[in-house]
Specification:
globular, Cytochrome p450-Terp, domain 2, Citrate Synthase, domain 1
Length: about 375
């Protein structure tokens, strides 16, 4: 083969999309994430990503009602959550749950555009229930039923804690979900597109997306970023710790991005909100530690932070267990994966790249006695 090989497909254009672009920052359906995060809410953004336009007041109301009506999970799935060992990661549980939900999905094998939109809306409503129920069961508590009147971020915190969250906490989670909702041809979205390009079903694509997101080089980076911060006990230790880590060539998760060489716009937007929540919740020391680490990594390695760096801290300040950080990424990204899967199916061509063979030259078979 004479084709050019690009490891990791870096710089390779693998398709067309109208869902989002990272060409000039990050936009969803033409709207910048800064505009959406400052003025919108997650449900409205989910509608935009899935349907292509921001909803009218009537459409937003109807969407909220559909999400509320779908905010239940079969009792058999909750029973399965009870039986899974507590040692299993929530991402592994979510991967299984996405597949299980297909068995109760009446339109599972209908790959029409309209049916996949309806299935996506149901998945958007159900995945937060599974995440919250799993955590409560791990904590020795019973799951809390969803409140169909609450928007998704408030509902998640309600189901997780059994008490109504503050407005600032809801806003913080809401913004993080907006920023995580979609991101062009990232590894998990591309995995989802590959799956449906075979004419497989939406739930299989979402299951594949979760599997791809689990990895620490993708969604799991937010959990690893928090683990870094927990190793440093105070701002006074931060400079020595990070310089030692860099000298030992340790990879610091939460920095650098394959696409954003000059900085992740999501991280820039989220940093201010994270600082506000830190002040409200008494975590100024961790913010100072994070700032020292960020400054040195940026200056010494020329690596700006990505969205996982501030988001990990934000979730910590909200009192969320580390095991929930990447699952919350799933909650947000289901709509992005689904929009890509639907777009792929609307104008499908099987995704089947080639490889450059670098094995041994052609050989002839020999009888076993001659080997």
């Amino acid at each position: 083969m004479s084709e050019t090989y690009s490891p990791g497909l870096e710089g390779v254009v693998a398709g067309e999309t109208a869902v989002s672009t990272v060409e000039t920052g990050l936009t969803y359906r033409g709207y910048t994430i800064e505009d959406l995060a400052a003025n919108s809410n997650y449900e409205e953004v989910a509608y935009l990503v899935l349907h292509g336009e921001l909803p009218t007041a009537a459409e937003a109301k109807a969407f909220r009602e559909r999400l509320g009506a779908a905010a239940t999970v079969p009792a058999e799935i909750i029973a399965t959550l009870r039986s899974i060992p507590h040692s299993a990661s929530t991402m592994d549980v979510l991967r299984s749950a996405a597949s299980l939900l297909a068995h109760w999905e009446p339109e599972v094998n209908d790959n029409s555009h309209a049916a996949n939109v309806r299935k996506t809306e149901r998945l958007i409503a159900k995945m937060p229930i599974i995440v919250a129920a799993r955590q409560r069961l791990k904590d020795g508590k019973e799951p809390v039923a969803a409140d169909p009147q609450l928007p998704l971020p408030a509902n998640f915190l309600w189901m997780l804690r059994g008490e109504k969250p503050s407005a600032r906490q809801v806003k913080a989670l809401d913004v993080s979900l907006i920023l995580y909702a979609e991101h062009e041809f990232n590894a998990s979205a591309f995995a989802a597109r590959c799956v449906v390009s075979t004419l497989s079903d939406l739930h299989s694509a979402i299951t594949a997306g979760i599997g791809a997101l689990k990895g620490p080089l993708h969604g799991g980076a937010n959990e690893r970023a928090m683990e870094v911060l927990q190793e440093v006990s105070s701002p006074a230790e931060a400079e020595g710790w990070i310089r030692n880590a860099l000298a030992n060539k340790r990879r610091i998760m939460g920095f650098g991005h394959r696409v954003y060489k000059d900085g992740d716009p999501r991280a820039v937007f989220l940093k201010t909100l994270t600082q506000e929540v830190a002040k409200e919740t008494g975590h100024d020391d961790m913010e100072q530690t994070a700032e020292i680490i960020e400054t040195i990594v940026r200056n010494e390695k020329k690596l700006p932070p990505n969205v996982d760096w501030p988001c990990a801290r934000l979730y910590h300040y909200l009192g969320l267990p580390i095991d929930l950080y990447t699952p919350l990424f799933v909650v947000a990204r289901v709509v992005g994966w689904s929009a890509h899967a639907i777009e792929q199916l609307d104008n499908n061509r099987l995704i089947r790249p080639r490889a450059i063979y670098n094995g041994v030259a052609e050989r002839k078979w020999k009888p076993v006695g001659e080997r």
